[in-house]
Design a protein that fits this description.
Layout: E1 2-6, H1 12-20, E2 26-30, H2 34-42, E3 48-55, E4 59-60, H3 62-71, E5 76-83, E6 87-90, E7 93-94, E8 100-101, E9 109-112, H4 114-118, H5 121-127, E10 132-135, H6 139-147, E11 154-158, H7 160-165, E12 169-172, E13 182-188, E14 201-208, H8 216-225, E15 231-238, E16 246-252, H9 260-270, E17 274-285
Parallel strand pairs: 1-2, 1-3, 5-17, 9-10, 9-11
Antiparallel strand pairs: 3-4, 3-13, 5-13, 6-11, 6-12, 7-8, 14-16, 14-17, 15-16
């Protein structure tokens, strides 16, 4: 049986993992911290880790990318795009004449993961401007904390699954500020992902430019340009070795097995650049 490490049950990571592994017998290994998710797979306790890496609204999750680059050596085996639908979760109030209602004025604190919170800031400003905001390790953890503090006036931003798992109510559905809110997830681990196939293939690399080489980035990009190789993302991150030194993470819409990529990589190395292949993998898009 495949064992998959991920953030807590009821989180968006949990929903996304169930989509990717639909129809496959999988044991989910839930962890509170993303560091423990990575280390579970790095130490051989699980086959894969599920890593949220990029969001439509907030962009890249730099901490998670830094773990892939600096802390562990786990190849990317798949990526998939999944809708990130957040909801306001708490307890409905009982009316004296029967029925239930939501009284936003009684909500004094809202808890969630910082990325999920940022996706709902406009809603919070309009509906809950008086509430304190508190960041926790995951949306599922936020819901659990609210569950454990009844009658406190606390609410969480999280998934409907987390609400159901913890016996709480969805106070308001779909509170994200944009309807096209999607999160990109990576599956990392040593084993190739063969449960599903996709016509869309990608390759991710990390490139370090030579120092004191004017125009190096331009020449690097030209290697792909004249071959008409499409890049879906290029992002700079500090090397953490010297101020002003950066490496570049590049996502290429092409498999490593293609004819063009090996020659492109050889030309990049001839420029004095260092290349680290982060993975060559299938790419999936959610079809609800």
């Amino acid at each position: 049986m495949i064992k998959v490490a991920l953030l807590p049950q009821g989180s968006v990571s949990d929903e996304a993992a169930r989509y990717l592994f639909a129809g496959t017998e999988v044991e989910m290994s839930y962890h509170k911290l993303i560091a423990d998710v990575f280390l579970s797979t790095a130490n051989g306790h699980s086959d894969y880790s599920v890593i949220p890496i990029e969001n439509t609204i907030e962009g890249s999750v730099s901490l998670h990318m830094d773990w892939i680059v600096h802390e562990v050596d786990l190849p990317i085996q798949a990526e998939w795009i999944y809708p990130s639908v957040q909801n306001l979760i708490g307890r409905l109030e009982e009316l004296s004449g029967g029925g239930q209602t939501v009284d936003n004025s009684r909500i004094v604190k809202v808890l969630s993961h910082p990325v999920a919170m940022a996706q709902c800031l406009q809603y919070i400003r309009e509906k809950l401007p008086h509430a304190d905001l508190e960041h926790v390790s995951s949306t599922a953890e936020a819901v659990r904390i609210v569950r454990d503090h009844p009658n406190s006036g606390w609410a969480a931003i999280g998934t409907t699954i987390a609400a159901a798992n913890n016996g709480l109510d969805v106070l308001d559905k779909g509170v994200t500020d944009h309807d096209n809110n999607y999160t990109r997830f990576l599956l990392v681990g040593e084993k190739p992902f063969t449960d599903r196939t996709s016509e869309k293939q990608k390759t991710s690399i990390l490139v370090t430019l030579p120092e004191d080489y004017p125009g190096a980035l331009h020449q690097l990009l030209s290697v792909f340009s004249w071959r008409r190789i499409n890049l879906s993302r290029i992002e700079s991150r500090p090397t953490k070795k010297k101020l002003g030194n950066y490496y570049f993470i590049i996502d290429i819409e092409m498999s490593l097995d293609s004819v063009l990529l090996p020659a492109a990589f050889a030309e990049i190395e001839a420029l004095g650049c260092q290349i680290r292949i982060l993975g060559s993998y299938p790419s999936f898009t959610y079809e609800g």
